[in-house]
Design brief:
The chain has about 200 residues and is mainly α. Helices cover about 65% and strands about 10% of the residues. It has a three-stranded mixed beta sheet with strand order 1-2-3. It holds the Pfam family P5CR_dimer.
């Protein structure tokens, strides 16, 4: 909406990615705006696929994506930190505890993506009857582990919508519009275009 204030037919693609793009293991989704065409979406997908997974979704799903994969790395880092604390509590050196926890999460994610099995089935495969893992999972469940994760995704999604609402209420200053127009001119300048740079 705000972009249309200085450009009547803006080619806008809304995109949500996450920090693991730094190591080319990101998760990115995008939604094309009214004036963006298929080629624009394909170009973005090609760019973002070079740093991880990328797919197109309907725009009304992007807030949920923010709550899941956008904020997801923070959930994983928090879980990993807690796992390492558990290892340290039981006598492991911190460095080893962090490495083992990270490798467990990495390996589990890779198993899921390569096998395409339901995560519940893969979880069951680890749990032997009466074993240590099922006892640990029972402890997690009694503490509301699943509900906490579900609620975290929901909280992030809701906050994203709140922030968008606040942004929609802000007025665009003439200076901001002028700066954006100047940036657009620079981008469209032949001397600064990607084509001439290559």
């Amino acid at each position: 909406k705000k972009l249309s204030a200085f450009c009547p037919t803006p080619k806008v693609i809304r995109c949500m990615t996450n920090t693991p793009v730094i190591v080319r293991e990101g998760a990115t989704v995008y939604a094309t705006g009214t004036h963006a065409d298929v080629e624009d979406g394909k170009l973005l997908e090609q760019l973002m696929a070079s740093v991880g997974f990328c797919t197109e979704v309907e725009e009304d799903l992007i807030d949920a994506v923010t709550g899941l994969s956008g904020s997801g790395p923070a959930y994983a880092f928090t879980a990993l930190d807690a796992l390492a604390d558990g290892g340290v509590k039981m006598g492991l050196p911190r460095r080893l505890a962090v490495r083992l926890g990270a490798q467990a999460l990495l390996g589990a994610a890779k198993m899921l993506l390569e096998s395409e099995q339901h995560p519940g089935q893969l979880k069951d495969n680890v749990c032997s009857p009466g074993g240590a893992t099922i006892h640990a999972l029972h402890f997690l469940e009694s503490g509301g582990f699943r509900s906490l994760l579900i609620n975290a995704v929901e909280a992030s999604c809701i906050r994203t919508r709140e922030l968008q609402h606040l942004a929609d209420q802000e007025k665009i200053s003439p200076a901001a519009i002028k700066k954006t127009l100047l940036d657009k001119v620079k981008l469209e300048s032949p001397s600064l275009s990607l084509a001439s740079a290559s």
